[in-house]
Amino acid sequence: MSTWHIPEPLLARYLTGGLPVPHVMSIEAHLAACPSCRADVPVDPDWLAHSWAGIDAAIDRPPWPERALARLGVRPHVARLLTATPALSRAWLLAVIAVLAFGTAAAHLAGDTPGVLLAFLVGAPVLPLAGVALAYGPGVDRAYEVQAATPLAGSRLLLLRGGAVLVTAAALTGLAAPFLPGPAGLGAAWLLPALALTLACLAIGTRLPLPLAAGGLTLGWVVVVLGTQRVDRYLLFAPGAQAGWACAVPLLALVVYARRRRFDPGSPSATPRFRSMR
Predict the structure, then answer these.
(1) Which among 265, 269, 268 has a CA at the least distance from the CA of 278?
(2) Of 251, 224, 249, nearest to 235 (Cα)?
(3) Which intervals hold domain Putative zinc-finger (predicted)?
């Protein structure tokens, strides 16, 4: 036990919040080790009990997205990792909803409906790319180094989070698609291109950082779509193109699976983007 005790004037300033932060930290370190000085700090028992009850509730009761995933059969630790995905933050989700709402409203208000519908079809497949680029990695995830030491690190966690982002973006886009005017069936023509582009992003991400892969694919996608306008406005969404997208999806999935170890932290073949700092 310390032989030094907090003087009353100093304790009074501490209780009223009139001390600088370094002094507060020093006093609180002393209070943790000195029962005599702790006894001089007035505490409201009801307030203390209420505070501890709130802390217990916050720790023991996970947020509603995590509880919803658990009810769907997702294991608790996987549900926690999925809900902690940086790309699934409120800001990203609200941004996606705002873009889709704007596109749907513009399709109804604009005079050239096919042009607005085309803009929606061009933008919808690349929405998941932004989320996948921010799903995992030392540059975007504050808990990356902690998670890199877990058995789920590397390809498993990236694919889990990437899949969650793709499903979320596809679900939100799917909700907006039926409200789009235009030719029947085109409202869902973005789905296979979105899946193919997402898998291509993951495949390229075994060589390059994911944000760079996503940005390059987005730029390439827009350039190709604009380049086909003189031939057919909806060339990349026509039945023949859809068959091509359907063939590309399993091939890209095989590439991602074959190169999955390049996402594993600490692997000799891992890219610097995902290498663990062990």
Answers:
(1) 265
(2) 224
(3) 10-38
Q: State residue 181's pLDDT score.
A: 64
> What is the C-alpha to C-alpha distance for residues 29 and 88, in angstroms, rounded to an integer?
38
In a domain, 72, yes or no: no
CB atoms inside a 10 Å sphere around CB 33: 10
Please give the backbone phi and psi of residue 205, each rounded to the nearest 5 degrees, phi first.
-65, -10
Classified as helix, coil or strand, 41 is coil
Q: Are residues 219 and 91 in the same domain?
A: yes
CA distances to 16, 71, 72 from 139, in Å: 41, 32, 31
Which one, of 68, 15, 59, lies nearest residue 37 by Cα? 15
Q: Are residues 53 and 175 in the same domain?
A: no
pLDDT band at 187 (very low <50, low <70, confident <90, very high): low
In the chain, pLDDT over 70 holds for what percent of residues?
Answer: 72
Whole-angstrom Cα distance, residue 100 to residue 93?
A: 11
Amino acid at 109: L
Closest by CA position to 169, among listed 225, 118, 120, 130? 130
